[in-house]
Amino acid sequence: MRLSQILAMCSSISKQALMQLRQTTGYPMLACRQALSRCNGDVSEAKAWLDERAQAEGWAKAEKLIDRTARQGLLGIVQRVASPNCLSLLELRCETDFVARTARFQTLLSEACNSLADNFIASAPQGVTLVPQDRLLGLKLGGSSLADCVASLVGSVGENIICGRALVFNAQPDSLALYCHSPWQAEPDAHPLQQSETGSCQFGRYAAAVAYSGGSEQLAYQMCQHIVGRNPARLDSPQPNPDPESEDALLRQEFLLNETRLVGDVLQEAGMQVAGFFRLKCAEE
């Protein structure tokens, strides 16, 4: 676009409308100017035009970027006050952790994870239920599908973005503990945790959850930390592993916070029983 065209565009657009559109959408300033110019300064119409263009460009970019490796990203987890024994989890992958830190990436992940909870938690059987990709990508976020929203984000950031694993975990009738670990803090403009009736979304590179009865919430949380750190593959085994460092049964592992004791002994002393657990690492093959 020529300089004369840009100057003419700027003269017909109010600064207030431009800043509002920029802050609302996160699109580049020049794209916002162009949208407002095409839509006669109407912010709502300009936003719709930008979203439509980003989605179209995103699908085109997604086709080109589909073979690029996406080894960064985040897990999003929603556990609601109204159903504390259940959670929904979604893995959203990208190419760089710079994109994973941004507000737009985390906003999409939060909205998608809450939609996952809306649509699957109420009917989820006991235990872990994996959500098929076709049903996941068809989730509605506002008036658009999750697939379209991902394509729009691809068009905006220019990276391959993939919806990975999605699940719901129903611990009923047991209690549910959750730990979500991230190696870095979110950027200042990152999406805030949604403290509302729809539930807050936690972000992290690792997540673990435990279905338990008895004991205390603190110990259950520590068990989740242990599971993230030691990565057990099963709850128990008939015989202990001769090499304690290679032990993969949770109850027979040395407790991460006190390696002089076994997890099974710690739980027995506290009167806690673990019915099930899971652990995920983002972008883990």
TrEMBL record:
<dbReference type="GO" id="GO:0070125">
    <property type="term" value="P:mitochondrial translational elongation"/>
</dbReference>
<dbReference type="Pfam" id="PF25025">
    <property type="entry name" value="EF-Ts_N"/>
</dbReference>
<dbReference type="GO" id="GO:0005739">
    <property type="term" value="C:mitochondrion"/>
</dbReference>
<dbReference type="InterPro" id="IPR001816">
    <property type="entry name" value="Transl_elong_EFTs/EF1B"/>
</dbReference>
<keyword id="KW-0496">Mitochondrion</keyword>
<keyword id="KW-0251">Elongation factor</keyword>
<keyword id="KW-0648">Protein biosynthesis</keyword>
<comment type="function">
    <text>Associates with the EF-Tu.GDP complex and induces the exchange of GDP to GTP. It remains bound to the aminoacyl-tRNA.EF-Tu.GTP complex up to the GTP hydrolysis stage on the ribosome.</text>
</comment>
<comment type="similarity">
    <text>Belongs to the EF-Ts family.</text>
</comment>
<dbReference type="Pfam" id="PF00889">
    <property type="entry name" value="EF_TS"/>
</dbReference>
<feature type="domain" description="Translation elongation factor EFTs/EF1B dimerisation">
    <location>
        <begin position="89"/>
        <end position="237"/>
    </location>
</feature>
<dbReference type="InterPro" id="IPR009060">
    <property type="entry name" value="UBA-like_sf"/>
</dbReference>
<protein>
    <recommendedName>
        <fullName>Elongation factor Ts, mitochondrial</fullName>
    </recommendedName>
</protein>
<dbReference type="GO" id="GO:0003746">
    <property type="term" value="F:translation elongation factor activity"/>
</dbReference>
<dbReference type="InterPro" id="IPR036402">
    <property type="entry name" value="EF-Ts_dimer_sf"/>
</dbReference>
<dbReference type="InterPro" id="IPR014039">
    <property type="entry name" value="Transl_elong_EFTs/EF1B_dimer"/>
</dbReference>
